[in-house]
């Protein structure tokens, strides 16, 4: 096994673990802190005190996207090395989408990191900090901002790379079908919001399975 394929497998496994952790936080941990739906994450009166009192928990949901970008770039480049000789044009297109997704997740996570500073300043000047929070949230949020664009590009990468693997007969067939489903969910989530909840569930399975397939190849 070459080093790029091993790195891709590790990156895919870590992405899958990240999805599982985020799902567990959203459905099992955050409700106990008063977060019941997506609108709560746009409320500075809820988010900023939460970040100040629970910085480690908040890390998973906000600047944690920086780590996810690192995991993703490992997988994107490793799969490029693995599949480029089979469908060069398709794999190049998929890799471009993966690189765009990585950049957007990294940017969104970097902006999310500023929430710690806003949370520290919140008790001193609530009006100004709330305005800054709403502006940053608009830029980086899943609804219309950087993270939404990242999910869209990530969906295209997953769909295209799975299609390339399916055409080349690389990896189990059902793994590639699952990757296509995951990719379609990511692309469609920008218009059909429920797909945003389906994506991480399918993505967790696909990423872990892909990581195992890469490490065992």
Write structural notes for this entry.
The protein has 217 residues and is mainly α. It is 80% helix and 0% strand. It has helices at 3-29, 44-53, 55-61, 64-83, 88-113, 115-121, 126-140, 146-168, 173-188, 195-216. α1 (3-29) runs antiparallel to α10 (195-216) and α5 packs antiparallel against α7. The longest helix is centred in the N-terminal third of the chain and has 27 residues, at 3-29.
Give the helix/strand layout.
Layout: H1 3-29, H2 44-53, H3 55-61, H4 64-83, H5 88-113, H6 115-121, H7 126-140, H8 146-168, H9 173-188, H10 195-216
Helix pairs in contact: 1-4, 1-10, 2-3, 2-6, 4-5, 5-7, 5-8, 6-7, 8-9, 9-10
Short description:
The chain has 217 residues and is mostly helical.
The proportion of residues in beta strands is under 5%
- By DSSP, the count of extended strands is 0
> What does the radius of gyration come to?
18 Å
**Number of discrete helical segments:** 10
Main β-sheet description: none
Ends apart, CA distance between termini: 7 Å
**Overall 3D form:** elongated
| Average pLDDT rating | 86
């Amino acid at each position: 096994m070459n080093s790029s394929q091993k790195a891709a497998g590790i990156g895919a496994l870590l992405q899958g673990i990240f999805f599982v952790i985020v799902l567990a936080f959203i459905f099992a941990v955050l409700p106990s802190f008063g977060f019941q739906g997506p609108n709560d994450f746009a409320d500075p009166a809820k988010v900023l005190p939460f970040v100040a009192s629970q910085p480690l928990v908040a890390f998973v949901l906000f600047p944690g996207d920086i780590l996810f970008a690192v995991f993703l770039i490992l997988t994107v480049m490793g799969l490029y090395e693995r599949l480029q000789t089979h469908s060069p044009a398709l794999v190049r297109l998929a890799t471009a989408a993966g690189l765009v997704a990585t950049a957007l997740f990294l940017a969104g996570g970097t902006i999310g990191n500023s929430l710690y500073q806003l949370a520290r300043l919140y008790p001193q000047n609530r009006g100004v900090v709330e305005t800054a929070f709403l502006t940053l949230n608009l830029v980086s949020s899943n609804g219309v901002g950087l993270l939404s664009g990242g999910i869209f590009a990530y969906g295209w990468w997953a769909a295209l790379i799975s299609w390339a693997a399916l055409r080349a007969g690389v990896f189990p067939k059902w793994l590639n079908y699952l990757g296509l489903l995951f990719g379609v969910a990511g692309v469609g989530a920008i218009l059909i919001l429920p797909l945003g909840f389906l994506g991480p569930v399918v993505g967790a399975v696909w990423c872990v399975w892909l990581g195992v397939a890469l490490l065992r190849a």
